[in-house]
Give the backbone structure.
Amino acid sequence: MAERTEREVVGVRRWWPGFVALSAIWGASFALIKVAVDAGVPPVWVALWRSLLGAGTLWVVLLLRGERAPRGRALWGHSAVVAVLLNTVPFTLFSFGETRVSSVLAGVMNATTPLFTLLFAVLTVAEERRPGARRLCGLGLGFVGVLTVLGVWHGLGSGETVGALACLAAACCYGAGFAYLRRFLSGRPESVTTLSAVQITCAAAELSLVAPFAAGAPHWPGGSAAAALLVLGAVGTGLAYLLNLGLVRAAGTAVASAVTYVMPLWSTALGAALLAEPVGWNALAGGVLVIAAVVLTRPSRAPSAGPVTAPAAVPVAAPAAPGGRP
C-alpha cells in the first residue's frame, strides 16, 4: 500500500506542472483577447492572427519531428468543418463578445463548453442517448448558472448581454465541434500534432478569406496588443496543444478535462488583477453553479482516451471527455 501511495505521489508530481501551466495559459487567453480588442484589433483579425501564429508553431513542431503533411481529402474536409466549429467561429465570437463584456465574464461563459458537448453528444452519439438523471440535473443547473451570470433580472437588452450571448454561442460551437470531431476524426491514425496542425491551418485559411472583407486591412495595434496576439497564437493556440497532449499521456483524460474547472479561476484572477475588471457577485455565483453542473455531467466511468485536438481555445481534453478552450 505504501509503495502504491508513493507511486501515486510521484505520478502527481510528474503531471502537476503541466496541469497548472495549461490551465494558466488557456485561462489567460481571455485577458490577452481583451488587450487586443481594446487596442482596436477587429475581432475577426484577432481570430486570424491567433490561428496563423498557432498553425505556424504547430508546423514547426511537425518539421522538427520529421512528420509529413497528410494528403487525404477526407481528413482535410472533416478538419475544415471542425475548424469552423472549434476555431473560426468561436475565436471570432469570443473576440466580439469581449468588445462588450469583461474577460472575467467571457471565461465563465467558456466553462459551459462541457455542458454543450454533452447536449450535442446526446443528440448525435448513440451511446449517449440516455444520459441519466444526474447528468440531466447537471444540464439544468448549468442553465440556471448561465442565467445567473447574465443577470436576467436586469433584462436582456443591453450591449453587455449581446457580448455575453456571443461568448455563450462560442461555447455552443465548441460543443458541436467536439461532437463532430468525436464522430469523424477521433479514430484517425495520424498523430495528434498533425491533426491539430491541419485543423488550425484550415481555420487560418478560412479566416484569411473573410477578414479582409469583414474588417479591412490589418494595422499595427501597438506593442502591447501585438505581444498579446503573439502569446495568444504561438502559446495559447500552438504550444498549449502539445501541453494538453502531454497531460493526457501522463495523467489520463479525466485529469486533463479537469483543466475546465481551473480555467475560470485564472481568467477571473487575471482579469481582476491585470485589467482591473470588476467581478460581480452574479458572475461568481453563476460560475460556481456552472462548474458544479460540469461536475454533475461528467460520466461516472472515465471514457477511453482518443486523439486530443483541444480551445481556446480552444478548446481541454480528448474528444471523449472534452472541456473548453477559449
